[in-house]
Amino acid sequence: MTVAVPDVPLAQMDAGDPELLARLLGVVEEVARAGAFTHGRYVDAFEASFAAFCEAEHAVGVSSGTAALAMALRALGVGAGDEVIVPANSFIATAEAVSAVGAVPRFVDVDADTHLVTAADVAPAIGPRTRAVIPVHLFGATVDLDPIVALARRAGIAVVEDACQAHGARYHGRRAGTIGDAGCFSFYPAKNLGAWGDAGAVVTRDAEVADRVRLLRSHGERPRYHHRVIGSTDRLDGLQAAILDAKLPDLEDRTRERQRLAGVLRARLADTGLDLPALPGPGGDHVFHLLVVRTGDRDGLRAHLQARGIASGIHYPTPIHRTPAYAALAGGVHLPVAERLAEEICTLPLFPGMTHHQLGRVIGAVHDWTDTQAQAAA
Ligand SMILES: *Cc1c(COP(=O)(O)O)cnc(C)c1O
Asked: According to a count of CB atoms within 10 Å of the terminal CB, is the N or C end of the chain lower?
């Protein structure tokens, strides 16, 4: 049996939009002719536009979202022997960044309705070695940050927002990533703002944190060959910066399109019996990096969709504390919500440029499946 290529993909890369592709190829040629591959004007220009977009004082371009998290932690003084609180329901990079600076992630559970970390999850995990907490705006939904920031201030620990899936989301009027001590973004190609390779940024209102990240991303040097701290090669490339700067003006419209499509999908799936995650409460926002639904027969739903040419995904199949990479360190800690979500969640296709026809096919296929389930149960 041959497996058909899905007619409705999970997401769409830039090559799916011929006008955008041509424009970005022009940008690549311009950067190549200028030879401005590291540092320089394209990086400076994107940092200025991304800081303006985020309404943040500083944005520092770096090599990936994982590097952004690690350098933000280091810039805030987190290192060997420290503990950092991390929600188990996230991409593994949130924990890897903690490990990369020599600290230890302390995994906590998430809310069963929103799938996001809350102050109630964080509070009991704060101990004498805790130096920071990383709230993750997962799927593009904003974490309720005010109670977490208040808790962190009382405990004297830093708040590093993982906004890698939440470009442009607002929380009580402010952009995700600008509320804690530092905010970290990924521009991995599939993210809401995607490069043509790996890229990331740290945003902060703290000039000292921004300055430390600038040092760390490029061998701790200032000026050239004067190495003040042990850094690395974690700069944002000029090519990626120029591509991101060319795409940034469209991000707000593309976000609105994601929100519109998600609104239609959620409304049309409301009567199917599928469980839709609760939207963030008052003051919160959702930029729908991913649209996730939940069902006890997740694998059945995915097989049904696949047979109809519709892609789906699982974000993520294993909570971080149960991955082989972290299981020993996590020491058998039981985080029931994150563990259950991993077995029941399914990501449906959602992307700017998704056609009315594609949307209808997803809705129709899910309805077919839930109707069949209801008949079988009757
Ligand atoms: C993508 C992502 C990261 C890591 O970003 P990279 O650019 O892939 O290193 C971190 N956290 C979350 C929640 C992500 O989605």
From this structure: N
